[in-house]
Specification:
GO terms for molecular function: orotidine-5'-phosphate decarboxylase activity. It catalyses: orotidine 5'-phosphate + H(+) = UMP + CO2. It is a single chain. By secondary structure, this protein is an alpha/beta fold. The chain has a single domain, classed as TIM Barrel (Alpha-Beta Barrel), CATH 3.20.20. 41% of the residues lie in helices and 15% in strands. The strands form 3 sheets. An 8-stranded parallel beta sheet has the order 4-3-12-11-10-7-6-5. Helix 10 links the parallel strand 10 and strand 11. The longest helix is centred in the last third of the chain and has 18 residues. The radius of gyration is 20 Å and the shape is globular. Bound molecules: ligand LLZGTKA7.
Length: 325
């Protein structure tokens, strides 16, 4: 990006596409327009997954295409937006688009975290962000980080939220309410169901590390999911980067099941230890997610460039410790 006045003008245009001529991505409408101009809601049945490829297959191809295990987490926080960007809801999509355009060739996935959108009534911005990735970079899987989980009837609604409303490739699910709370998700053979196993946060051990029948609860979760819930081969686990020895233990229980790994960057997880502990024999098996360290790498007009540099740095560090296939 050029510097100076031209640059400001250019950025202003890119951040306000509605006023420019840049072709914007058509966002999905949930209303069917009838000839007499009344509107009727479209059925909320789950949309058929595009193509025949499962999430796991799409992920494997994405790992390979970009030679990357990195995922950029899309956690748009208006209070942290770079100075030149208006701190209003309409800017959320433009900010995300800048980050996506700057990093798409470096990542294996994107992970929007739903709270950053719903907290400020920006669900439309989430839809536009997901649609933008699907239209422009259709080979890159989108993971909705929603950590859903509830009784079966409500879980059905959460399933529709993820796979019909947002039509994402994969969703994070909290397994701690048991099988019936995960079952509506698990039935979707072609989508990825990413279940919390050992999370990255400081308090993760309060419950997940409690010993039951001689082993920590997170190990029970890993075993349960790999032996009983993975009948459609569509399960993955959330395993934080902040506890590599636990990750290594989980890897030994679940074989090659992929892990979504938050906790590098802002949370300080050690990349070398995490990659060594979690990768599979062929040097994959991980979706390593970083949000704040990439999104807010610069507070200035060069934020997208800075996000790209951070992503390159992390990608190279990760690749340094990967097994070669
Ligand atoms: O165990 C977990 C599960 C999910 N997350 C989510 O990942 C990102 C982390 O953001 P950073 O800025 O890279 O720390 C965020 O969306 C969390 O909700 C997690 O951190 N740990």
């Amino acid at each position: 990006m050029n510097r100076g006045a031209d640059c400001v003008e250019h950025l202003a245009w890119r951040l306000a596409p509605e006023q420019g001529t840049r072709p914007d991505t058509a966002h999905r409408s949930f209303k069917l327009r009838l000839p007499d101009r009344r509107t009727a809601p479209v059925s909320t049945a789950i949309m058929p997954y595009e193509g025949k490829m499962s999430f796991i297959e799409k992920l494997k191809r994405s790992w390979k295409k970009g030679n990357s295990l990195l995922c950029v987490g899309l956690d748009p926080d208006l209070s942290r937006f770079p100075k030149p960007i208006d701190k209003n809801i309409e800017s959320i999509f433009s900010f995300n688009r800048e980050i996506i355009d700057a990093t798409h060739d470096l990542v294996c996935a994107y992970k929007p975290q739903i709270a950053y959108f719903s907290a400020v009534s920006a669900e439309k911005q989430l839809e536009k962000t997901i649609d933008y990735i699907r239209s422009n970079y259709p080979h890159i899987p989108v993971i909705l980080d929603a950590k859903r989980g509830d009784i079966g009837s409500t879980a059905e609604m959460y399933t529709k939220e993820a796979f019909s409303r947002y039509n994402v490739d994969a969703v994070t699910v909290n397994p701690y309410m048991g099988y019936d709370s995960a079952e509506p998700f698990l039935q979707h053979k072609d989508r990825g169901i990413i279940l919390l196993c050992r999370t990255s946060n400081n308090g993760a051990g309060d419950l997940q590390d409690l010993i039951v029948d001689g082993v920590p609860i997170y190990e029970h979760v890993a075993r349960l999911i790999s032996e009983k819930w993975n009948f459609n081969r569509n399960c993955l686990l959330v395993v934080g980067a902040t506890w590599p020895s636990k990750m290594s233990r989980i890897r030994s229980i679940v074989g090659d099941m992929p892990f979504l790994v938050p906790g590098v960057g802002a949370q300080g997880g050690n990349v070398k230890e995490m990659v060594t502990a979690g990768q599979t024999a062929n040097g994959t098996g991980l979706i390593i997610s970083s949000s704040r360290a990439i999104l807010y790498a610069s507070n200035g007009i060069d934020f997208a460039e800075a996000a790209r540099s951070e992503t390159i740095k992390l990608k190279n560090t990760v690749n340094q410790f990967r097994n070669t296939a």
